[in-house]
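Lab notebook page, bench 4
Experiment: in silico fold of construct C2
Operator: M.H.
Input chain length: 199 residues
Purpose: comparison with the prior construct
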Amino acid sequence: MIGFLKGRLAMKQPPTLMLDVNGVGYQLEAPMSTFYGLPATGEPVALFTHLVVREDAHILFGFGTDSERRLFRGLLKVSGVGPKIALGVLSGASVEDFLRTVEAEDVAMLQRIPGIGRKTAERIIIEMRDSVQKLSLPTLAGNPLNPGAGQSAQSEAFSALIALGYKPPEVTRLLKSADEPGLSTTEIIRRALKSAVKA
């Protein structure tokens, strides 16, 4: 699986862009939310990616932030939503706007996005309700040119504990017990898990 690509922007024609990575041209499809943040052609850029495999094609999608990619992946799990509709959602609303829409159960707002009718909008809201908290977690979005930058030890620990199966409110509580400045990610996780065993 290709997690992210880092290279020079060779071409951009929404919704398609081309990334030159050491002489290899990767063609990606991206939402408008990503296009708005792209540099000029020829400039360096890094994008998070998601590969969709179909019988007739392998399509690589690119995203400016990890939260956009997470939302895209979450939408693909909704019955009746394919990559085209998922890109439409990301092009029509920021991740934060989408999360607010789901929390407010605003079916009308989703119906304004091309390809989404009332039934699909209702299904998205019902099926994405539980994912909303996970999508608003700290992400690697601090600096897309350096995916590790801008992520604190606390937020790395948060993501790791979620991956281990803990619920967001529980993780927040566990991390309070390991809230000491200067601790490494590993040490924060170790202390949080220790306090989870005691609880």
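Observations: The chain has three domains: 4-63, 66-135, 153-198. The CA atoms of residues 102 and 129 lie 6 Å apart.
Next step: discuss at group meeting.
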